[in-house]
Amino acid sequence: MNKVNLREVAEEERKSPKGKFHKFVKDISIALGRDRKSLDLAKRHPFDLAAVRIPKGKSYCPYHSHGAESELYLVIAGRGSVRDRNGTTEVGSGDAFFFGPGEAHQLTNAGEEDFVYYVIADNPRGDSCYYPDSGKWAVPWDAPEEAIVKGQAADYYEGEE
Does the pTM of the predicted model rise above 0.90? Predict the structure, then answer.
């Protein structure tokens, strides 16, 4: 059995150059030994679990949809605004929601305190993302990160801030 205590999992800060997107992520599955590159499910794990904290007024990432991935969210604290094809919905502590492949979404802190939630994703190998606001795609390729393209290689935040 692999075991970690969430207090001991490193929190990684990620933010965009202009600051619209800002998050703190604890990759719990990685702390439990998940190998992102392995095709072996015993090493890859059948799903990922992360604890996410978004500061006041910030968004996790640009509005996007996954080609193959499903994501389940459980809000722990704070208030968030979840954008989808129908507009925006406010969520708070205790709320759970789900996005399947092809369902565009974006999470934003809508309150005065940090917006905190868990996300469980099945992370299928070869998943792609589409960014409707900027017309970009994130596609897997033989490199540590996915390629962001818009008719040609593009920066992840191009057209988003």
Answer: no
Which CATH homologous superfamily contains domain 6-125? Answer: Jelly Rolls (2.60.120.10)
The two beta strands, 71-77 and 136-139, are unpaired
Q: Summarize pLDDT for 19-43 with one digit per residue, the tens.
A: 999 999 999 999 999 887 777 777 8
User: Can you read off the two tokens belonging to residue 66?
Assistant: 């996954």
Asked if 51 and 12 touch (Cβ cutoff 8 Å), the reply is no
Mode of pairing for the β-strands spanning 87-92 and 79-84: antiparallel
Residue 161 in 3-state DSSP? Answer: coil
Rounded distance between C-alpha atoms, residue 39 and residue 19, angstroms? 35
Give the residue carrying structure tokens 């998050």: 23
